[in-house]
Amino acid sequence: MSENNQTSFRKVAECLYRNESSKIYYAFVKRNGRQIRRSLKTSDRKLAERRLKEFRGDADKLVSGGRNRISFTQLGEIWKPVACANLKKSSADRIERCFRTL
Which of 20, 34, 57, 73 is a good FRET partner for 27, with 20 to 30 A between their CA atoms? Predict the structure, then answer.
């Protein structure tokens, strides 16, 4: 890859970088020796700092010594809206009832 095609980032704060061309903020976080880079999808610094704080918490849950820290209940809460998105109300209600019995 040539140098001209590489994206240039400017360090703004700890773990917070800004793309020079698009002015969008990015989070660069290291967990267990791996770098996780994520767009914060904003050009506002204060909002980027709040999203960075949230992202750090999420990154701690995702990468932790090879084991995930997210509980089954938390995973279910994330999964339910996705699973029920294109279902009829009765089918979505059935999934909700099944989930509550777990």
Answer: 73
